[in-house]
Amino acid sequence: MIVTLLPLFSLLLSCFIMMLGFGLIGLLLPVRMGIEGMSTDTIGMVLSMYAVGMLFGGLYSRVLIIRAGHIRMFAAVAALAAISILACGLSTNPWLWGAMRMLMGFCIACAFAAIDSWLSESATAKTRGRILAANQIVIMGAFFIGQFLLNLDSPSAQTLFIVAGMLLSLALIPIVMSRKSGPAVADIRSMSMLALFRLSPLGVVACFFCGLLYSGLLNMLPLFANSHGLSGFDLSLFMASAIFGAFILQIPVGFLSDHFDRRTVLFGLLLITITACLLVPVLSGLDSLYPLMLAIAITTGIIACIYPMSISETFDKVLQNDMVAAMGGLIAVYSLGSIIGPYAASLAMKKFGNDALFQFLAVLEVLLVIFVVYRMKVRHALPVEAQEKFVMQGMTGTSSTEIDPRFEYHAPEQPLSHEASIAVKVAQNNPAAAVRMAMALAESAPEEAAQLAVALTKVEKVDIARLYAAITSAAPELSLDIAEALAAVSPEHTDELVTWLARERPEQLSEILVAIAEAVPEHSLDIFGSAAESFAESYADEAPELLLDMAETYASHLSEGLEDMRPVDRAATHPEHLAADLYNRLVEIMPEHAADLAYKVAQAMPEAATEVAAAYVHSLIEEREQNAAVVEDDGMIGTQAPQLETDTHNEAHQEADERVADAFSDYISHSSESMPDQTIDVAAMMVESRPDLASDVIEQLQAVEGFEERLTSDIDDRPQASIFPDYVPDSEKTGHS
What we know:
By secondary structure, the protein is mainly α. The chain folds into three domains: 1-183, Growth Hormone, Chain: A (Up-down Bundle); 191-405, Growth Hormone, Chain: A; 605-737, no CATH class. The protein is 74% helix and 0% strand.
């Protein structure tokens, strides 16, 4: 852990100092406005401006980073934040404070966008989770400590504003003096709120309510505390308990969320926090501070957990590639709730008294409970093991989209070595010389060979197949890595590579095709089809056996990949269509091996066994019709006596039907041995396609051990119609002839 975080010390230190300043100013502003006698609704409006600034900061931070760079942008927003804090110390005008509060929100959103990008560049697939956890601990710890800085001087003096401004300025030094350079910034699109709501209504609604509740509670809590005589160190301790609860409760709630149905957990937590909210006004009348602090910690902690739970709930319904966009949409939803929360809470407090803050929260939580119950009734819960993991979120109102371990990891692109850069320049005018240089580099520095190969593919004159042949002849152990890298960066040229492989290195073809499939999954089926066609042309005699093995290897890879996928991604890939398409591509190349091909693909992808069987049956029926047409085209029909012509026609069709029936029988027999769980579905599909063969299929199934029990169970699971409407189990045949 220390080894992982040591290179990030300057970044985390800047983050810690900055959050100390924001922790102090977040408590100082509402306390000072109360001292100045501002109305409750004015205080709520001023505090709401922070979320407005954060929303704009989230929208424009990347534009600023691209324009100015990480260090200059961070320095600019830290300086602006310090100015906004110091300006608040010069005047108590609520309009000025509202504008400065909005500027603070904008600055902190931009600052965290820069820090997250830096952290992301330093993170690997294995360390992202640890770096994210460390970052959140730093943020929460600094915010916690910042509450106690209120005791350095009287809130009515300018000293605390100066201290907060100094801290923001001090946060500049570790990053500006660091040797780290800013990483590249990728453009991130945001998913619309309407699209998000259609995918996950509960996730979006819970996220919005969390913004309402969390911002309303934290911003207006100092006013509630002040109305009950809490000031000085007691006020700091009271606010610190709320922040501590928001941090520490994410650990047990995260465990519950990951091991039980998330909606049930959310329902139970909301009931607990409603109870705690109703108890707070009662406990505030007691002399003991500690029970009140406990109730506040529970309330704030549970409300804080709604945000990460809403993110996980939404991610359950979103494709992996859309998760970052969905996070952007959720941040906007949360920000909208945060804008409304403090002002809405202040209106309730102004009308009904400061204790109404908690009745206001309880009413919102009851509304959210009702919506949770409604969603539990209209949508089935995911299996617990299929739920997206809970990831802790901090106090900033943003999310670390760069280092969230749930997102797909993309390793940062490394700069080319000096030798590789020269080879790329040479390739512009002399591709052959560049290929020879690539061979030499593969022998001397094989770890750089894949990177050079990727760079050379961007040169139009370079032949990708020749490049691959040259590098792998010098470093054969890099065959898979080079093929995967070339396919990922240049999928449009992959056909050239696999055609060459099919012709020159057939023994490596299956393994390399799997590597290519991992690099470009969206093109893998077309690439495999092209490879199969090239292989069949080059090795006509050996093709069938090797192609069958290739099909099995490729289908097994698809199946393993599907098992590793998130449920929503697996459903979106339509594995049954992939398997059927694979079969159809290959059966055109070797139609005489249709049955063996169907067996191989179905066994490798049992979840798609019915669709593969359907494709196989379709090919059988097509073959039957073609055979009947051949009999007619050969002149057997139309040149004989009418009766003889009819007999010949019927005989031809009968022979074709017998071949189909035999094929059905063989397939069911094979399926019952190798895929017993899919046999019933396969047989049902066959009966639907050829109802006239139902009795033959049933007879074949009756020979399968345990068939009647499995059939009965399957019928119970299908309430609409019987799979075999004419089938009656032997045990029920009483009096039937």
